[in-house]
Design brief:
With 519 residues, the chain is α+β, with helices and mostly antiparallel strands. Helices cover 61% and strands 8% of the residues. The chain has a six-stranded antiparallel sheet with strand order 3-2-1-6-5-4, with helices on both faces.
């Protein structure tokens, strides 16, 4: 069977395009850092610094409203961007910018820019989906969703007439998959896999790009969550572009029918994810200087409103959403908050003031022990906690053991607590497995009390509420922070506090990457 003309043109263009092999090598190098095959901070920093354009774009993004905490000092170096944003987020940004630099300039035509805007939207939807369900894999899903659009981007650049004909056929009622196969010769998914097959991507990422069946099933592993979320993001962005904002209800109805059961999300949940993704896409487009190119596809959301919405959503997750999903059997009863935490602005300033001390500890190679002690002290003081403890993973002993403490004696704790890495299911293990922050407002609620680790009521009998913050590296829990209060009904950290906590945790992750022996 002869090769369709459009597919032949695409393949010829790919063979002749000297920029594409360079892109593949760069993407492969950075992607492998995601899989733990090369996970040092210095390697990622050097990979970014070797490309001046990439460095400039990254710093511009790091200083944008989407990523920079209000009142924080400007980000002027790649190493500081890594500290503030975190390894995973910087890697995700770098990969998306590589596509901008290597593919989009090849044809600045409006359709190409719109196709890239669709890729940004897909990435944002995938990220927002897993930030709610499996946050430690959110950036990986964002990368996979971005990569899923490479086939569409390549076809739009090198076979624009065929892609335009596909759009006309779809507008006339023909299914897109059928139209693409007829007019281009291969589906966009198949074209993506053909393009990236020679890039040497980690197997985990390539598997995440595989098409889903007609009826997606509920994920059973982090790998399946990434694949499902990336496909959901891709289809969401495609439908959003086809139906427009006026057809949002139609888009949501289609997504509920196809993905609702697998994601365990109803129409309201999907609407919230899409709205949040719209905000993130616009802010990222602004940071990349692409707002005008994709203005027709993304609603204009004021920066202040978008940032506030993002913080409100994060607060809601910490207050009840993630706790309910971690527990699954009534932890929502623990979410009714009454008492307020310390003034958020003051608490945030206290937390942020510790960043310079942690940076100095990292620069002076003082070790992970010093870093987590600084962070533990700051959390206790700023959150008004009775006790704050950092538990480190000890693979040799098969336990999590206290490594830093504030408000209590570390030596005494180490003699009383050794939480197994695996064991009877409880709220701590569930939160660590998902990489989800856990706020419990009242430990007296029966559904909560019955699922606490045995040592907690014995070692900290006065604790009436607590916050647990997992520390994960490449999706693997390496430890967690625990902070408790002696009053039930305490409100969870608000948006300002969560922003500051995220920065502290990113620096602990950075220290773990810099000092892998400490793991």
């Amino acid at each position: 069977m002869p090769t369709p003309p459009a597919l032949q043109r695409i393949r010829e263009a790919l063979r002749e395009d000297i920029a594409l092999p360079a892109l593949g090598q760069a993407v492969s190098n950075v992607s492998r850092m995601a899989a733990g095959e090369s996970d040092t901070v210095d390697q990622l920093a050097q990979a970014i610094l070797s490309d001046v354009s990439l460095t400039q774009r990254l710093l511009r993004c790091a200083n944008s409203p989407l990523y920079r905490t209000r009142d924080a000092a400007p980000v002027t170096t790649v190493s500081r961007a890594l500290m503030l944003l975190g390894f995973d987020q910087v890697r995700s940004l770098a990969l998306s910018m590589m596509l901008v630099d290597h593919l989009v300039p090849a044809a600045r035509a409006r359709p190409v820019m719109r196709a890239f805007g669709q890729a940004l939207g897909a990435s944002s939807v995938a990220r927002c989906t897993l930030q709610r369900r499996w946050p430690s894999c959110a950036e990986e899903a964002a990368i996979a969703a971005m990569f899923r659009n490479i086939g569409r981007l390549i076809a739009t650049i090198h076979a624009p007439d065929a892609v335009a004909a596909v759009r006309d056929a779809v507008a006339g009622g023909q299914p897109e998959s059928q139209a693409v196969r007829t007019l281009v010769g291969r589906s966009f998914d198949e074209l993506t896999l053909e393009v990236v097959s020679g890039w040497g991507l980690p197997a985990r990422i390539e598997q995440s790009l595989q098409p889903l069946g007609s009826a997606p099933s509920s994920p059973r592993s982090s790998q399946e969550w990434v694949r499902l979320a990336s496909a959901f993001g891709d289809e969401s962005a495609n439908l959003a572009r086809r139906h427009g904002l006026a057809g949002r209800d139609r888009t949501i109805a289609t997504l509920v029918r196809r993905y609702g059961d697998a994601l365990d999300m109803d129409a309201e949940g999907i609407h919230e994810v899409l709205a949040r993704a719209d905000q993130e896409t616009l802010l990222l487009a602004q940071a990349l200087g692409l707002t005008d190119a994709i203005a027709d596809d993304v609603p204009a959301v004021p920066v202040a409103a978008a940032s506030a919405g993002r913080r409100a959503e994060t607060t809601r997750e910490a207050a009840g959403g993630r706790s309910e999903r971690v527990d699954g059997r009534g932890a929502s009863g623990a979410g009714a908050s009454r008492a307020a935490t310390p003034a958020s602005a003051d608490a945030s300033r206290q937390l942020l003031s510790t960043l310079s001390r942690i940076s100095e500890a990292l620069a002076g190679s003082q070790g992970i022990g010093r870093v987590v002690q600084i962070a533990t002290d700051a959390l206790r003081e700023s959150l008004g906690a009775m006790h704050a403890v950092y538990f480190a993973r000890d693979d040799a002993a098969g336990t999590y053991r206290p490594r830093a403490a504030a408000g209590c004696e570390l030596a005494a704790l180490r003699g009383r607590i050794a939480m197994p890495l695996q064991g009877a299911p409880n709220l701590f293990h569930a939160a660590l497995a998902r990489g989800a922050d856990l706020h419990i407002a009242d430990t007296g609620v029966e559904a909560v009390r019955n699922r606490l680790p045995p040592w907690l009521p014995t070692v900290f009998p006065e604790a009436r509420g607590f916050l647990l913050l997992p520390v994960t590296v490449d999706g693997k829990p390496m430890g967690f922070f625990y902070a408790d209060r002696d009053e039930a009904g305490t409100a969870p950290p608000d948006g300002e506090q969560l922003d500051a906590i995220r920065l502290l945790r990113n620096q602990v992750v950075l220290a773990l990457r810099t000092e892998p022996v400490a793991r």
